[in-house]
Amino acid sequence: MQYSEIRGWQDSATRERTIDRLIALRAGLAKDVSSRNEDESFHLATWNIRDFGGHRLNPSPRTPECFLYIAEIMSAFDLIAVQEVNENMTDFQTVMRLLGPHWNYLVTDQSGNMERLAFVYDTRKILFRHVAGDVVLPAKKGKPPLQFNRTPYLVAFQSGWFKFNICTVHIYYGDAKDTAQRKREIADVANFFSERQKKDGETYILLGDFNILNPEDAAMKALLGGGFEVRPELRKPTALASANYYDQIALRTEDQQFELRGSGCFHWQDYVYRDAD
């Protein structure tokens, strides 16, 4: 992490608050996220950073201290899928600079709502296997199928001996009461990788913002129906100000050596941007 710019801030109150909050945030990450130093494991996260780089949904631009908090949280993981990166990538690149020289990223072109999907990874732990691309559904009986509102993004990575394919999504939301397209998109991407995994036997991780309202609704069943596993610990509310279960990490593998050691949600709002702040 690159903290040096804090010294140049003219507002001493902001500088002191940011340092205090970074220390608290680091302590929270140490408590809630296990050590990244184990050679035989890696830490994976998914994070929809709302309108990241734009102001269509945010009331004002993000402040310099905010970028430090985002980078600090990312630095606790080895590989992070990020949704809602804006067409303007200035804010995203600011976070990458703060993370430091060992970090790299892969990002898509703009899709629905002018959004990009990204993978941020620590090159000391994660190796890019030089395979990346959008997920496009094949025609069935010569008839082109409906595609995704925001095209899913697949990348092949490796950590130590473990090779895996990972796809990040931001599923269509639409109207809260009309979930047909949402369910269709989830079922389509889950079934797409289910069929592929049956042929190649590789590991597939499907993660991102699925816009799932609760773990019992049809959208979650569409994900599980594709043969993916979602750990019970991850079936918890993830949206900041609601009880929705938007964000999920699902796995499909036949690798007997692979195991999930832990999972959950990191509640950064317990450490920064609290009511007391």
Number of helices: 5
CATH superfamily: Endonuclease/exonuclease/phosphatase
Roughly what fraction of the amino acids lie in strands?
A: 15-25%
- Number of structurally distinct domains: 1
Helix/strand class: alpha+beta
Highest-level CATH class? Alpha Beta
How many DSSP-defined strands?
9
Task: Please give a handful of descriptors for the protein shown.
277 residues, alpha+beta, 4-stranded mixed sheet, 5-stranded mixed sheet, Deoxyribonuclease I, Chain A
Can you characterise this structure?
It is built from five helices and nine strands, in the order H-E-H-E-H-E-E-E-E-E-H-E-H-E. The radius of gyration is 19 Å and the shape is globular. Helix 2 packs across helix 3 (90-99). The mean pLDDT is 90. The strands form two sheets. A five-stranded mixed sheet has the order 5-6-7-8-9, covered by helices on one side. By secondary structure, the chain is of the alpha+beta class. The longest helix is centred in the first third of the chain and has 21 residues, at 12-32. The relative contact order is 0.13. Strand 3 (103-107) and strand 4 (115-122) form a beta hairpin. The protein has one domain: Deoxyribonuclease I, Chain A (4-Layer Sandwich).
